[in-house]
Amino acid sequence: MYPGIAVPLIALFFVSPAHDITTAFWVAVAALGCAVPTFFQPFIQRRWYKIPARFLLGVGFGLVASAAWILPWTLVGWAIRAALVAMTLGLGTAALRLRAKRLDDPCKNCPWGAFPVCAHNLPALRRIREQQGPDPFVDSLIAELEPLAPYPPRLGEAPPVPRPGQFQFHAPPPNL
Q1: How do the domains of the chain map onto residue ranges?
Q2: Residues 24-37: tens digit of each pLDDT
């Protein structure tokens, strides 16, 4: 995304467009066009799509900054700049809301727990225990996750079946 921001800003320096509302309008329209692939990104979860979409999003941000720069420094220009900022914030908020709705979280409903306290993270918890010494909280987490160690979390693999009345964290609290 950051290289995409730099491209139009560098181009603005070399092209030096006219400082008028018409030019700024067409630059802002181009910025809107660059934002379109971002709204399809939550639906197309492929690297070949995400990299160019994020680059174009960066180009769009650079174009918005360029449009704000080439507007005339008048009261009307400042009003249009404020509208550009509001439009950019609105589109960003809409894109983030769409992404939050379509977020593919592998830890959601995982029977091995949720990161960072899951069976997948058990080796890291053991390293913390070795480095920092006895810690009641870390010890209780390790005690909770130890029974799941032979069952590494793999997609599609059935987890150990909990006994009736057993919750995810069933280790007794540490004696203090």
Answers
A1: 2-101, 107-176
A2: 899 889 988 888 88
